[in-house]
Structures are given as C-alpha cells and as structure tokens.
C-alpha cells in the first residue's frame, strides 16, 4: 500500500502517520528544495527519506548522555547497545564535517523515545517509520516511532549522527524516515560451507546497522544438513559435515533472539524436493539419485543429474518422504517463530528423478515430472499452511520451462515467489500472474558471482584466457559491483498495481566458494548498496540516479562499519577519499 511518494517511489508497507508534522512533510516531500540534501556532517546510511538541517550547527553530547524509552523486551537491549555506542564510539570521519560546533550551548543530555504501538510484533509489513528531532536549544532530543522496530531504526540513525572525541551531534535537525520496501534481506547458504553462530550474529548485527530486516537462512542443501531437527536427529547426525558443524536448537534460539533485538526476522529455508542429497545419509530410500556423479560421462547438459556437484531429490512417490519432511517442517516452525516458511522448490533436474526406478515406472504409465512436482506441492503446502505460515518458493515452481506446477496448486493469498533469473522479466511474469514477489535477480543480487567456478579438472582452462574465464569464470559472472547493485530498480517496467506486489529484495550469498574467512568482504559493503535502494531509493530529489553521489557516502559508511568490527572490503583507495573529486570519471566543474 502506498503511503506517500513521488513518481518513482513505491511503498510496500502501510504506515499510519506518526505526527501531524510528519504527515505534512510526507505530503509535500516531492516539492522539497535541494537545501534538504545531506551535508557531510549528516552522513547516515541508508540515506534517510527526509533531512532538514538548514544551518550546519552541532553541539557536544554529554558524557552522561541517556536514552529514555517505554519498556519493550527487545528494545531494551538495543537501547543499551546504542547508548554504549553513542558514548564510546568516537567516530572520526574520513572528511572532517563542515559544521560549526557551539561551545556555549549546553550538551545534549537525553534522547527521549515515544512509541505508539508497543505490542506490534516483528513480522512482514510492520511499521518501521520514525522521526528524529534535535533542537538547537534544550537538552533533550526526540525520537518518535509507531513501533519498537521503527525506534530501532531511529536509534541507528542517531548513532550515525554522533562523531568526534569529545562527541558532538548536529542540531537544528529534523529527520523523517520510512522504508520504500517492507522486505529487505540477505540470504546466506550454510550448507555448502558451514558458518559458526558468531559469524551469523555478526552478519545480523551489520544488517541491522544497514536497516535490513530479513535474514533468509538457506540452512540445508544437498551438500550438508547442519540443522538439528529434534524429531529427526539422524538428518544432522549423519548429514552434517561433523558434530562441530551442527546448529542445535539452542543455537537457533540464540540467533532468533539476537535477530529480535536487532529488528531482523530469521526466515528459514528447507529446500525440497530438489537439493536434498544430504538427507540420503539418514534416509537413502526417500532420495532419488543420491551420491551419484552429477554429470554422467558422455551425456548432454539436459541429461545431468544435478546443476552442480551434489545430487539428490526427494521422491514424491514414497509415502515415507512426507513422514520425514512433515516432521522437519513442524519442528522448523517451532524453532523459528517467523510467519514465512521458505520451501525452496527450485532446480528440479529431470535426470535425477528419471534415475529412480519407481519414478521410471510412473513415467512409463503416462505420468509427467510436472505431475510429480504437483503431487509433492499438494502433499506439503497445505500442511505448511496449517501451521499458520505463508509459503515462499523460488520462482522455478511456477516458471521453469520443463518441471513446474499449475498455478491452481499455489494459492496466491498464501504463496510468495522469489525470483532469481532474467532480471525484471521474471519479476513481471510473477506479478502478472498475481503473486507477490521477492527479488533476488542473479544478474544484480548474487554476491558469489564472478569468483570463478569450483569444478575440478576443467579442461576449458587449458586454453589461455579461454572458456568462461573472461566472464569471471562462473555461470552468473561477472562480479556484481556495488554500483551494479545500487542502480537496480526492482520494479522497473511494472505498472503501479504490479509494483505493489513486489515485497522487496534480497542479496544472496551461495557458499560454494565462501566461508567465514571471506564472509564479511563478500557481503559488505555491496549489500549496503541494496540496503539504501530498498530503504530510500537510488534517485535524488529530481529523479536522477544518485550512484555517483553515493560513492563518497559509501566510502564513509564502509570505513565506519570496519571500525565497528565488520571487515567490509574497500571500494576505492583511501587517497580518493582524501582528495574529493579526484577519482571521478568526469572532472567536476
């Protein structure tokens, strides 16, 4: 639902006005003068929707600075975190802010938080709007939010406004802020390579700092099953890489609670019926083509058993498949309170199912692979819905050219499709069909692309600069730069009504060639680029793309993330930051 916006803005969450002033500003936003653009001392990432700072003034932050707020179980840890950060971070910007720091005004003593709806739970569409006012006079700043989750976003903004030692904050400042899209996430694959709990927590903390709100946990795949499911313990005991590479229920509870305290939902994905080779370690009788070589000798690509090494599909004709899978689904719904359940359903490879004798007999009697998938969906989706969950599938379940289900098997009111192929074309196909969409287009949002392939004895590399190496050596190369990510308009080519069905987007880090040693640099600061575009867009007040303007701000934000313990990769030499404009493509006039 739209709440306010210019010609190219689309709000995907219903946000009631939090004050008369905010309403007036929201309604007049398209007509605000350029003087409201961010100045160097107000370097907040993602860029807020509205900043009014007519005079570059600042004053000191009291050494006894406090934050007052009504009690909320998950907000209190955030308040403690941001109080400590505001008092002790003492951030030194790469470029000294151009603000006049008052020596006569009393220090800012208090940030007072007002929340309208303390009962609102962290779920899709929750109101994240906030406003922040820091006056030139008085000892109190005011943060107003509809929910605790909006208050968390405002606290992050306030923390980024503080700089220096001793600490100072801009004054005479007003910010009104709200996300363009309700779903802003990171997908992490923990099956192909394992990530420790602390790695996941660090990622969630960095997500919160970038105002992202969904950690999509692709926890299982053909390569390993690292999640301990209480009613099916053998899946992890035999399917994980080892006993020290298993996520216990207490680990999951810690991650989920950490997410709540950072305003980040934890969305589990148990991919099936494809990508389930690891299940065969415990239940070989329910998995087709498990532990077979993925590309039989002399076969064409169409005869492959998997799209990459690691074979195995659940057999929809075996009743035991559903006994095991429903146990998994039930336990996952208990472990994760998130109302979305991701069922995967991507990359059904015909050759794998055709390798199974029972499926061969089914096909010989006139059955089709699409009917097999429909049987699987019809046997599992109603059960997921009975647990009060909305089902998320990858786009393949409806759009695949060979194995797909009829739309009648996917109720639009209970099904969300996540797109990963063909950019905005597939997004349009999904919303034209009436489904809600989450955008993860591989052409823009796949963070693993461009790092080469992981196949051994690949003879294409025997030729100098041959094969796919010129395209980054991977199927989805080249590398997705932060500029590529920043410039992507996920609702491009959609009508206004179609765009309303786009919930938001997620970057994806598949882990064939990633593990904890490279996690931070693979994700950050490229994901920060998506975070800003989904929060406040990628265009300035005039409608012009602002990636060029964003470079200096992203440099500053990347530097601050590093100082906060996130090993984000650099986007330019430090010399460029120290010499503004000298690294531009075109000399500024």
Topology:
Blueprint: H1 20-28, E1 50-52, E2 57-68, H2 75-88, E3 100-101, E4 108-117, E5 130-134, E6 140-147, H3 148-161, E7 168-171, E8 173-177, E9 183-189, H4 197-209, E10 214-220, H5 233-239, H6 249-260, E11 265-272, E12 287-288, E13 313-314, H7 319-335, E14 340-344, H8 350-354, H9 357-364, H10 369-386, E15 390-394, H11 396-399, E16 415-419, H12 423-432, E17 436-439, H13 442-445, H14 482-486, H15 496-499, E18 502-509, H16 519-523, H17 526-535, H18 547-563, H19 574-578
Parallel strand pairs: 2-3, 2-4, 4-6, 9-10, 9-18, 10-11, 11-14, 14-15, 15-16, 16-17, 17-18
Antiparallel strand pairs: 1-8, 2-7, 5-6, 5-8, 12-13
Helix pairs in contact: 2-3, 4-6, 7-10
Summarize the structure.
With 589 residues, this protein is α/β, with parallel strands linked by helices.
How would you portray this structure in words?
By secondary structure, the chain is of the alpha/beta class. It has a domain at 48-175: Chitobiase, domain 2 (2-Layer Sandwich). 31% of the residues lie in helices and 17% in strands. It has helices spanning 20-28, 75-88, 148-161, 197-209, 233-239, 249-260, 319-335, 350-354, 357-364, 369-386, 396-399, 423-432, 442-445, 482-486, 496-499, 519-523, 526-535, 547-563, 574-578; strands at 50-52, 57-68, 100-101, 108-117, 130-134, 140-147, 168-171, 173-177, 183-189, 214-220, 265-272, 287-288, 313-314, 340-344, 390-394, 415-419, 436-439, 502-509. Strands 1, 2, 3, 4, 5, 6, 7 and 8 form an eight-stranded mixed β-sheet that branches. Strands 9-10-11-14-15-16-17-18 form an eight-stranded parallel beta barrel, surrounded by five helices. A two-stranded antiparallel sheet has the order 12-13. Helix 2 runs parallel beside helix 3 (148-161). It is globular, with a radius of gyration of 25 Å. The two termini are 42 Å apart. The active site is at residue 347. Residues 181-537 form the Glycoside hydrolase family 20 catalytic domain. InterPro entries: Beta_hexosaminidase_sua/sub (IPR025705), GH (IPR017853), Glyco_hydro_20_cat (IPR015883), Hex-like_dom2 (IPR029018), HEX_eukaryotic_N (IPR029019). It comes from Gossypium barbadense (Sea Island cotton). It holds the Pfam family Glyco_hydro_20.
